[in-house]
Amino acid sequence: MSQPSKLNILVTDDHTLFRRGTMMLLESFDEIGRVDDAENGKVALEKLEESNFDLMLLDLEMPVLDGWETAKKVVAKFPEMKIIMISMHDSLQIISDLIEIGVHSYLLKNADPDEVHKAIVSVTNNDFYYNQLVSKALHKKVQKDGHNKGVARRADISPREIEILQLICQELTMKEIGEKLFVSEQTVHTHRKNLMRKTKAKNAVGLVKFAFQNGIAAF
Amino acid sequence: MSQPSKLNILVTDDHTLFRRGTMMLLESFDEIGRVDDAENGKVALEKLEESNFDLMLLDLEMPVLDGWETAKKVVAKFPEMKIIMISMHDSLQIISDLIEIGVHSYLLKNADPDEVHKAIVSVTNNDFYYNQLVSKALHKKVQKDGHNKGVARRADISPREIEILQLICQELTMKEIGEKLFVSEQTVHTHRKNLMRKTKAKNAVGLVKFAFQNGIAAF
DNA sequence: AATTCTCTACCCACTTTTGGGTATTTTCCC
DNA sequence: GGGAAAATACCCAAAAGTGGGTAGAGAATT
């Protein structure tokens, strides 16, 4: 049932300190063989080409090539690879989306080291590890697919809406945005209303948070 | 010049995985003796009361009692304690403010383990460790003190204002905040106006960004 | 050819925020 | 005790945002 050979793991995270700490943690586990690291998705993909890995710990929030895009590419190129996504945020929406594209588990950065160990073992043997958070996310998703509309995903936001969202994040008013983009203030209002409907934001603050969490704006 | 006895270090961070990884990293250094951890500033202060530590690694962004408030209390109660602040953000403003209140160094979460080692040694022996980031922040500060008025600093924001700012970041309206804190809506308006004056924010979006950049809110 | 989506633009009405004051009480420090 | 800072609360008025519609032109897709 379990492998006789040890696991080779690739840790991908842009925070060096976190990355190296996690590596040391992994090396203390019995089942783990070689541990290597990469500072972003691009480097990770190169390392996957070069040598064999069984499992990836993948940070969701990264520059250059983020966890989302990296996971999609890995699933396509290395279907056997196990992926455990790690993130600071517990947005249920993105969790179920990640599971959908083929990620095997999702852990928060404040997870217990024991849970990391359990996740690695479970993903290796059972092909998945669903903790309470992931279960909740999938439950919500099933409910949603049943009869309810979900919160926005980044994919649902149009290019023009992204543009306007970015300007909102720069503290501009609707009027100022209209002048900047050479469209009517009314048009900007429409875009903004659509954004709020899609993101389920109560006000501009919610929009800004959505933008930040989805890499649309940074500060 | 250097101590014969080994260093006792307290790692304070709300992300368990990061915390435990960092602990393992520290334990691999020669100079380090005992390493303990705490998940927030409140717990950290309790541990400092209980037993002896020489140095703290302190995360800036934390719930319950964040790095800023914790540092102030530690400096007041344990003047001999060395503090290395760790954060995800490189906002120059808050770095110089932190140094001003008595923090001995400031590292980013993507720092190299070698740099952590260097910082620990330098802080212990020379009472400070200024990397390029800190130096730049202090340089900016000197320039600013010279002739220009600064943007807000975290230091200028009162505890009550922080509290209200955090609730604003949760998409609450003034009325809702008033009800939550059992004060008049008018009072909340006053606090908010003061916040906007201090932070030079044009609107709520600016407030949210300030909160995020200064570790007052996280998302 | 028909459908769907995006971008554009307007209507109306209501709520909330923003910006300018003033002022009292409490708390904390010197 | 005196003084400063913080927290409390109100006034007024203008600006901006929020929420509900409808609707046409053009692009993309089926």
List the helices and strands and how they pair.
The structure is a homodimer of 219-residue chains.
Chain A: E1 7-12, H1 16-27, E2 32-38, H2 41-50, E3 55-59, H3 67-77, E4 82-87, H4 92-101, E5 105-108, H5 113-126, H6 132-147, H7 159-168, H8 174-181, H9 185-199, H10 204-213
Parallel strand pairs in A: 1-2, 1-3, 3-4, 4-5
Helix pairs in contact in A: 2-3, 4-6, 7-9, 7-10, 8-9
The structure holds a DNA duplex (30 and 30 nucleotides).
Average residue pLDDT of chain A: 84
Uncertain regions spanning at least 5 consecutive residues of chain A: 143-150
The pair of chains with the biggest contact is: A-B, 39 and 39 residues
Give me the count of strands of chain A: 5
**What coarse outline of chain A follows from CA principal-axis ratios?**
elongated
CA-CA gap between termini of chain A: 47 Å
The helicity of chain A comes to 40-55%
| Helix-and-strand structural type of chain A | alpha/beta
Helix/strand order of chain A, N-terminal first = EHEHEHEHEHHHHHH
Quick summary:
Two copies of one chain form a homodimer. The first copy, chain A, has 219 residues and is α/β, with parallel strands linked by helices.
Description:
2 copies of one chain form a homodimer. Chain A is α/β, with parallel strands linked by helices. Helix content of chain A is 53%, strand content 13%. Chain A is built from 10 helices and 5 strands; from the N terminus they run βαβαβαβαβαααααα. A 5-stranded parallel beta sheet of chain A has the order 2-1-3-4-5, with helices on both faces. In chain A, helix 2 (41-50) packs parallel to helix 3 (67-77) and helix 8 packs across helix 9. The N and C termini of chain A lie far apart (47 Å). The model of chain A is unreliable at 143-150 (pLDDT under 50). The A-B interface holds A 14-18, 20-25, 28, 86, 88-89, 107-113, 116, 168-171, 173, 201-206, 208-209, 212-213, 219 and B 14-18, 20-25, 28, 86, 88, 107-113, 116, 168-171, 173, 201-206, 208-209, 212-213, 218-219. The structure holds a DNA duplex (30 and 30 nucleotides).
